[in-house]
């Protein structure tokens, strides 16, 4: 799991520029969540705890980095963001390490459920999974923090990273199932109004390594 | 160097909520830049090339991930963001790995100069270094990509990470100059209107491990 947490004054989600608003929060945090092929449900609990407890707010006396979103009873807005699993091949983003949408969507919903259970359901907001949106983030500070899942921060990180690279190479060479599912999954971005001629063939080909 | 790149419809910087607008761009990318203690000027050129060439835009036919900000002649807005060098100690962000402001500011300005030289100066915008701002990001997609500097992506990454951890431990134990300068540097956030009682003593103590 790759997470980006931003401290927020206001956050609004729209389906398109100047279009329908689908979600919003006031003060709180925005969580961008990138789910990788290797992520397991075990990591969710740890990440939920970090999100709710990381101290990005000041206390009543103005002391920075002393209160969490939960301490302040502020809101959390989550957006699934597979581009956080990007690996650059030259200058081209490659997303084969991202979990395909058909698995990532239930994973993401499970993550949201954990977050609601650990906090208050009414303070957890959400976007529309996989949809093309305009995410209007008023970053307060700015304060932006990257979090890694425990699998990536434990001692054998070195090994894990190397393993990932090797697995990726294998996948690229052998066209493993994950890759073909990734291609099925490609039209995820077909809503993109700018992708007028976004035929599936085009989209899948542009995800080729 | 830790970078976050976001694809932008509109981006506006304000000195405070509802306050004076200090910078803005239309379509383009937002670059949040976290400079670490170990970063050297050598890395700047590589990162500038990546920022300008990473393909986050679609082409005329709507094909995704095929055009860079430079291809499209869009704008770039950079914001220095030391919180990207955060290390969590429990739930508390620790910023001893971030380059202290007195070195980070010339480093950042050099980075901006390289960016302007490699592109067009008039298409590179900036915030106010070290200031407390409201960064209003309209993330288009959303599309958010993390980039690491070459030092962190080369083979000896494993070693580098371990070295960092060890160095950090040393620093914490021995109160190396970098730490004391970090404390001098702490009032960076004193502009924070919420930090009403933000006496220097308070601020430096909250940066203690």
TrEMBL record, chains A, B:
Its main location: cytoplasm. It comes from the Eukaryota. It is found in: Cytoplasm. One of its GO terms (molecular function) is tRNA binding. Residues 149-209 are annotated as: Disordered. The keyword Hydrolase applies. This is D-aminoacyl-tRNA deacylase. It comes from Chelydra serpentina. It catalyses: glycyl-tRNA(Ala) + H2O = tRNA(Ala) + glycine + H(+); a D-aminoacyl-tRNA + H2O = a tRNA + a D-alpha-amino acid + H(+). The lineage of its organism: Eukaryota, Metazoa, Chordata, Craniata, Vertebrata. Belongs to the DTD family.
